[in-house]
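Lab notebook, page 48
Experiment: co-folding of the full assembly
Goal: obtain a model of how the components sit together before planning crosslinking
Operator: M.T.
Materials (sequences as entered):
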Amino acid sequence: MKQRLVVIGAGMASGRVLEHLTDAAPDAFDITLFNAEPRGNYNRIMLSPVLSGEKTYEEIVTHDDAWYAERGIACRFGEKVANIDREMKVVEGEKGHVPYDKLVIATGSNPFMIPLPGHDLEGVIAYRDLEDTQRMMGMGPGNKVVVIGGGLLGLEAAAGMAAHGVDVTVVHIMGHLMERQLDEAAGYLLKKSLEDKGIKICLQANSKEILGQDGKVRALRLEDGTELPCDLLVMAVGIRPNTALAEQAGLAVGRGIHVDNQMLTSDPDVFAVGECVEHDGAVFGLVAPLYDQAKVVAQALLGEEAAFTQKILSTKLKVTGCDLFSAGDFADGPGREDIVFRDPSRGVYKRLVIEGDHLVGAVMYGDTADGSWFFGLIKDGTSVEEMRETLIFGPAYQGGDTADPLSAVAALPPEAEICGCNGVCKSDIVEAISAGATDLGAVRASTKASASCGTCTGLVEQVLQVTLGDDFQMPTAQPICGCTDLTHEDVRRLIKGQELKSQAAVWQELGWKSPNGCHVCRPAINYYLLADWPLEYQDDPQSRFVNERKHANIQKDGTFSVVPRMWGGITTPEELRAIADAADKYDVPTVKVTGGQRIDLLGVKGEDLPAIWSDLNQAGLVSGHAYSKGLRTVKTCVGTDHCRFGTQDSTGLGIKLEKILWGSWTPHKLKLAVSGCPRNCAEATCKDIGVVCVDSGYQISIGGAAGMDVKETELLCQVPTEYEAIEVVMAVTQAYREGGKYLDRIYKWLGKVGIDWVKAQVVDDLESRAALVERFELSQSIYRKDPWAEHVREKSQTYAPIADFTLEAAE
Amino acid sequence: MSWIDIGHIDEVPVRGARLVKTHIGCIAVFRTAEAEVFAATNSCPHKGGPLSEGIVHGQSVTCPLHNWVFDLNTGEAQGADDGRITTYPVRLEDGRILLDDSAVARRSAA
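Observation: model returned without errors.
Model output:
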């Protein structure tokens, strides 16, 4: 008598089991196949091409009625299984019982629906089966759809609908798309190409609530209050093994149905296969391992030796025009090294992860032609020691020249503007060179190119080299750090010119050699981005030195110093009492008066910072930014209020300046002083910006120093009114913010651009002054605020340990 | 080896770190990517700088006091500096950070 085999679920895994089984032994079993969906096995992973219209459903059917009939398989499609009676060995279908000798459970997985308020509204769907696909295909131009989930499935759904002209927004909780398969750089490129297809992408977006009207979905509301209107909401946030039936039948179940290497469950007559199983701690969502499992099940059913082993997987995204490949493990693990290749002009990114002599992971974007070759190296564990140097260029690497970095400059047309400050184009420089200029200084003298803000210096040198060839010895420009060959000036120019508005954009478009920068370049890039794009770019605390991240100065023993702001150096008995109380309460070992007329509380424990700030805030005290590359202090003398020599209200002006400038970030620290008369008690002429009051107005000078270098300020201008003095100070600060190299004080910046250029920008040209002031104000609309209050409100828990085992009772 | 749940990965910023206090000293738990964590002693062998306050880049951290750079895989100081930090086994499971209890456990007094 033939054995009776019952299979529950007609998906891709069980379909493959039936293929192997009926091919190898057509008459071994009487087979009954249950499926809750009213159809047989189709190629579920091809639903995305169906959605986008590149294929029809008929084209993706794997097994049609004729196939099942040929093999004598009794199909019970559209019928759910209510129960498995393992004692009686009977599967209880809705329309009748079927006895079995062997049972295969292939119940697949369920899409995970986030239990947001409103998730049960009409129009909230998953992306799992043909019905979901058809719902999405019903959308067209004029419809809005929100997709929650920026993983493989969510993006395929979004791209498929966008191809039909649907207005699609993808909401993703993480910082970049497909974070399980891609690193940040590849995620950035993917986002860019999806946005080019018209898909809107919201990253780091927490969904809060689904809003409905008359029982139907109307919009998604995010945590930050944004409402995204939609006619359909697709949740594609992941799958969970469907273990309900197995659990009910009393089989061993963890995350999935437990199986051994033969795919047997805890019952020796019951197999499980596909997305519903858990093997050796892992669950499965990609098709390759499911096919391996299917083969093992078929062999085991026929009594043959077989064992399932987990293999390394590769992923490709099925979205036309987004060429992406990821394989192996490109994260975690000891002793790993990266090889990174970027070609910004082609939008290509490749990263290989090497452990010892072996390739263990690969991420590629834009050019995935070599993906399968790399995948082969990973799977086979081939030693890459010999080809390490050229590995990233793939199997076709033939040697030859590396790309010429000068070709871009050579290709520039004669009328291309090289120096924006002085309106010098390429042909002007070439003419100057033909007339005898052979180095940067000579070009500068004859054309003024790079003689102002200096950010085009690199370009001018490249024009020199292209024109003179070997006669020109390129000075070795200092790159920012080992992550790039570009100088600070190059990077600043390119951030503006190419409108790069995120760190990932800078790393990719400018060909960074490390995955995400280092402690040298990250703070610089973070500053350049926030200075150039104050509204678009969000300050990244993780790219800041600890002092700026924690808004306090770290001391050599790991404690911090806390300096509250005293506007213009003026304080009150109430403030002093609050400072004294705080010093007592938090056991502050040292209280010191600073050179900038403030009080410094030294030796505060890191975890006490939010509490001491909160106390100081109560008394009206805010951060003094004594830790920042930004406005520190405005030192003043008592001016006309008390001093018999004072000519103007220097204290009042100092307070006004500090209230306008505070919170602003600059390339390096910025210290000001205002003296009430030329006796200069506030020592204004050795500050970054100094104001000396005279009878007829205000003398503003810049570029002083009293540190490693000692320098007197250079006079910028004298203005008659306090209002103008404030405008000039704002304008010169902004010019420094826009042009200065990170970690250059004003005097170093001044050494490069010259006082005449600064005068032209902020003194003589009133339009330019007004524009600088306006840009400064725009930036200050974001940054003029107390970071202490913000951290007390939103981040105080990050100052405490994540876990504290010293609090547990002593043994 | 037994594992102790110390918190959720979202509590540690990407390219950031958090501190774990134990009876045998402080441990820094670093998050180098969306789903990648490392654990090491918090104290720099140079002058005791708190590594959890450093800038995290690639799979390295830079000490905030004098810019020593450590590879979090091996604990070795990079470049010209010579030194090593102790690293501890740590892993992720369903978003929870699990630290090997040898890092945390108080040595038995026996």
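Interpretation: Residues 701 and 715 of chain A are 4 Å apart (CA to CA).
Next step: discuss with group before ordering constructs.
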